[in-house]
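User: Here's a structure from my thesis project, written as structure tokens. My advisor, Dr. K., wants to see whether a designed sequence matches the one we expressed. Can you design one independently, without my sequence as a hint?
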């Protein structure tokens, strides 16, 4: 019998401040329950393709923007590795490309993740946004419990305290 209800935590990173708060919380949680920690960033190529179809971007702009998104992903992953190391927590990181909800769900199944941690979900203003929301899809289709962390400065303060 497991000591805790979860032993493998995945935090979804999207570059937002909310996902950084979720990362800090996940690091503290993994440390306290001795769980394996994973962090994944998904470069949303699906959204980029839709922007080209809608003629918001031409193909060349898509390629340039894609390179910028990849650089951002690498920067956020490096930051997550530094934050985890600051608390002596090992972290498995990955950068994927595609539809975020599909990539995250696939990763969860491949690695036996039993808790998904993510930043707060943005307010949805229309039914179309609700149907298109990648984070909402993750919430609804995750094969395990999902912990949504509000962007709360108490977590930042707690993280910065010495353990």
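Assistant: Designed independently from the structure alone:
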């Amino acid at each position: 019998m497991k000591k805790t209800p979860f032993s493998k935590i995945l935090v979804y990173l999207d570059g937002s401040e909310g996902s950084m708060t979720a990362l800090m919380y996940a690091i503290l949680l993994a440390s306290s329950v001795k769980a394996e920690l994973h962090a994944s960033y998904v470069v949303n190529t699906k959204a980029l393709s839709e922007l080209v179809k809608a003629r918001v971007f031409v193909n060349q702009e898509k390629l340039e923007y894609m390179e910028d998104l990849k650089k951002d992903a690498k920067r956020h992953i490096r930051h997550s590795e530094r934050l985890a190391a600051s608390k002596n927590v090992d972290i498995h990181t990955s950068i994927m490309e595609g539809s975020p909800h599909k990539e995250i769900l696939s990763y969860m199944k491949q690695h036996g993740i039993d808790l998904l941690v993510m930043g707060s979900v943005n307010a949805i203003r229309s039914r179309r946004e609700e149907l298109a929301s990648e984070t909402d899809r993750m919430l609804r289709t995750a094969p395990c419990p999902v912990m949504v962390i509000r962007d709360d400065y108490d977590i930042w303060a707690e993280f910065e305290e010495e353990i």
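When you compare it with your expressed construct, this may help: Helices lie at 17-33, 45-53, 59-86, 100-111, 127-132, 134-141, 153-160.
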